[in-house]
């Protein structure tokens, strides 16, 4: 997106504390991709129950794309970093002119968290129906570390979801660094723990509302 704003500087000027307004619509669009992929997967299952090998292959492809795009939901919470230095110079840490930004970024982040819970809960319920409860529970255990890794690849290393197809070797090298480097692994571990907390907290609060 940096290249996009470099080519379209006018869009970058419409910003909230240097956060382009256009990015809000872009992130919400990316957030909707796994939502529609889930609907497609669910419809495809109702149509053929994944009976044939070709059905299973296409279902696996849709699920793989869902996995690639699901980090875009919870990624939105990282945009609270744009609150840093939100006060004009020579103002205290809390200032009247831009105090509204605190609520704006909080609600924006909350929206991403809700979609994160919604989509994971729906997919868990779907896998429980297609397979069994053990597979559905195992899915949650595995997907959250993958989401944490995806968020960091986007936040720190600036890769998009489709980067897996464009820069597979570069992403693989960075993934290895997250495993072998203390500082990278520390970031990954904290994100994993944080996302587990956010998921199970949301799952407790919303209970079965998102699982139908």
What would you call the shape?
A: globular
- Stretches where pLDDT is under 50 for at least 5 consecutive residues are none
How far is the first residue's CA from the last residue's CA? 36 Å
Total domain units: 1
- How does the helix and strand content classify structurally? mainly alpha
Number of helices: 10
Reading the helices and strands in chain order gives HHEEHHHHHHHH
Measured by DSSP, the beta-strand proportion falls in under 5%
Largest pleated sheet: 2 strands, antiparallel
Strand order of the largest sheet: 1-2
Radius of gyration: 19 Å
DSSP strand tally: 2
Helix fraction?
over 70%
Mean pLDDT: 89
Q: How would you summarize the topology of this molecule?
A:
Blueprint: H1 2-7, H2 9-13, E1 15-16, E2 19-20, H3 21-48, H4 53-69, H5 71-75, H6 100-130, H7 133-155, H8 163-166, H9 168-180, H10 182-206
Antiparallel strand pairs: 1-2
Helix pairs in contact: 3-4, 3-6, 6-7, 6-10, 7-10, 9-10
Give your account of this protein's structure.
Helix content is 74%, strand content 2%. By secondary structure, it is mostly helical. A hairpin with a 2-residue loop joins β1 (15-16) and β2. The radius of gyration is 19 Å and the shape is globular. 18% of the residues are buried.
């Amino acid at each position: 997106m940096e290249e996009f704003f470099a080519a379209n500087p006018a869009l970058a000027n419409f910003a909230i504390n240097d956060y382009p307004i256009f990015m809000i619509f872009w992130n919400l669009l990316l957030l909707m991709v796994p939502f529609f992929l889930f609907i497609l997967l669910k419809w495809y299952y109702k149509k053929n129950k994944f009976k044939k090998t070709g059905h299973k292959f296409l279902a696996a492809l849709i699920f793989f794309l869902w996995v690639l795009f699901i980090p875009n939901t919870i990624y939105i919470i990282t945009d609270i970093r744009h609150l840093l230095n939100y006060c004009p110079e020579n103002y205290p840490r809390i200032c009247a002119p831009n105090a509204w930004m605190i609520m704006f970024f909080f609600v924006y982040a909350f929206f991403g968290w809700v979609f994160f819970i919604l989509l994971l809960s729906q997919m868990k319920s779907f896998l429980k129906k297609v397979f069994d409860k053990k597979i559905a529970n195992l899915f949650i255990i595995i997907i959250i570390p993958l989401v944490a890794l995806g968020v960091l690849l986007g936040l720190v290393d600036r890769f998009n979801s489709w980067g897996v197809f464009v820069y597979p070797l570069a992403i693989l090298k960075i993934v290895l660094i997250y495993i072998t480097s203390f500082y990278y692994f520390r970031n990954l571990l904290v994100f994993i723990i944080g996302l587990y907390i956010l998921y199970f907290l949301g799952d407790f609060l919303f209970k079965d509302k998102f699982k139908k």
